[in-house]
Amino acid sequence: MATLRQEALSLVQGRTRRSATPPSNKISDYFGVNTFNDAQMRQSLAPSVYKKVVEAIEKGTKIDTATAEEVASAVKTWAISKGVTHYTHWFQPLTGSTAEKHDSFFDALSGMERFKGSTLVQQEPDASSFPNGGIRSTFEARGYTAWDPSSPIFIFENTLCIPTIFVSYTGEALDYKTPLLKSMDAVNAAAVKVCQLFDRNVKKVQPSLGVEQEYFVVDKALFAARPDLVMAGRTVYGHNPARGQQLDDHYFGSIPTRVKDFMFEFEIEALKLGIPVSTRHNEVAPGQFEVAPLFEEINKATDHNQLLMDVMEKVAEKHDLKVLLHEKPFAGLNGSGKHNNWSLITDTGVNLFQPSSSARENLQFLTFLVATVKAVHDNADLLRASIASAGNDYRLGANEAPPAIISTFLGETLTEVLDELEKNGNIKIEKGDNMYMKLGIAKIPEIILDNTDRNRTSPFAFTGNKFEFRAVGSQANVAGPMTALNVIVADTLSQMSDDIEKEMSKGKDKKIAVVNVLRKYITESKAVRFEGDGYSEEWEKEAEKRGLSNLKSTPEALDVYTTKKIKDLFTKHKVMNEVELHARHEIMLENFIMKVQIESRVMGDLGLNHIIPTAILYQNKLIQNAKGMQSLGLDNSAAVETIKEVSKHIEALKTNITSMIDTRRKLNTDEDIARKAKGYQTLVKEGFFEKIRYAADKLELLVDDESWPLVKYRELLFIR
Ligand code: ADP
Ligand code: MG
To answer: Coiled-coil ranges per the record (predicted)?
Structure first.
């Protein structure tokens, strides 16, 4: 009987292409057609209603009942005209994916399609099975979703989706979006205050975000024949293929046809949803790719990234492909991340991280740059925790991946400028002096973008006019790390305002006051700046000398959420209260435990049910062969040698799996969730995963290819 693997391989041989046709040759003809966007609102709402909605979006004002009624009615008409029958509140619970519950517009009682303003604005989903970290059991079982008008309503697969936040009856956030929105307010308030030192016209500052999304693509049949990919999202076994990424021939290479067809189609769907996808290319590992949209206001960009992952998965099905969003689907090959390109932009249209030709503006630029570096320095552990997950642990701090040290890269030019500022700390500036010249600020070239050296090994790099937080995991909801980043920058900026004011109250000129504070911050945050190879061993040593943390695993990294410093930070800026923080900490620990547990089980099951039986059959064949040779008086020592080797690995697999199961069983009785998570890390994962995998991968090399049950790496990566 053919194995599932062989069946899958022959299915792949028969695949045909699927080519999508775009609605028009011009993207501008269909960009955003499936969204109730600004143009659509203008068209279908009375001017007075439209004005109120825009106000709600821009100023966060409340939408009154009458307005909600009007919007609901217009949205319903628009949706029905596009063949939509159902609506849903679309939200982002702490599971990491999105949630929706569809309701029909059709009301059988009245025999009419209905959609009320109150339904648009608020819903009460039966949400008792979403993670809540104890919030709901202590308070009240209900949860509410509430319309977030700042993110456009959209149609996805014939359902009207209303972006919402998700909170408990008592107002605690149960989702990713609520703290993100609050962190936007925090950074806005703090940044506006600093901007006002330079330009009184600035009234609002918004973070913007462009998310580069990395992913792997494999054939659907091959995927289905790998229970570990199906269950855990990553391969727990698999010997490295002869050819991996060592030829460096995949990055930016020509995109394989089936994958290109897939990209083309998901891009069309994304564009219809108003997701401004713009870049596609091969990534470093074979089978790995990237998609990036143009940056947007951070709230929209977050929704769009969540939606994009959904769209990609749905469209992949149509192409008989499977998208792997896991951070490390394949050992020995590059992992996947989301590069979060982040900046702050004023309502006067200035990107605060864009250097300019004017020295005065560059002082403002340096202020925001230094504030961000200082924020990263002072809160590196929070940033590390914000990207911690079982999946990302394979990418950060594991044997082959970059270390889990948070540092920031600025490039040669800016490093020189900051060094000079620091060095010239004692320069006296007299009236009439050109302060900028004296301090070297005048030297910042207009377009750093072109001469910024790119450092691909930095977890948090300045890339010309924005920071790029690269250590974010590929399946993560970016709202988590972006909330953390907004809060820490808000905190440093507000501290900075206070410090500048203090200097000014001592009679210092405003500019001098700013520069003095910058100098101080530069010195204080110097340790977090690193320009070298972030993947090297020397860096781990150097970072340790500098006193930077290197928190290698999620349970270790998450401890920061229990510190007073973090509680004060989040409560001070009204982003999360203690209950919410505590809940999140629990949920993340729980999630980690479950992920490692699933992997551990999959390892056990595959080892016991697939690999050992196959290896024993092969072992029997070898025994027959050895006996036969002996009966003919031939030298059978090679065969006997192989039998011994196979037996050794079978034995190792079996005993280690048995002990791992035992260890799990003991750990599962632990009520202390933080200790349990650490146990899963050190006793289960570090204790057994490698040993078990080593034995299985050795057997893969020994057992005859034809009877091996699991699709091999070379097949997963190169056949499509
Ligand atoms: P790469 O980092 O691969 O060289 P780019 O620098 O061109 O690519 O852009 C990567 C992402 O950064 C894109 O999503 C782009 O829209 C986004 N981006 C560019 N400018 C900004 C900005 N000011 N704020 C946030 N994101 C930005
Ligand atoms: Mg990039």
So the answer is: none
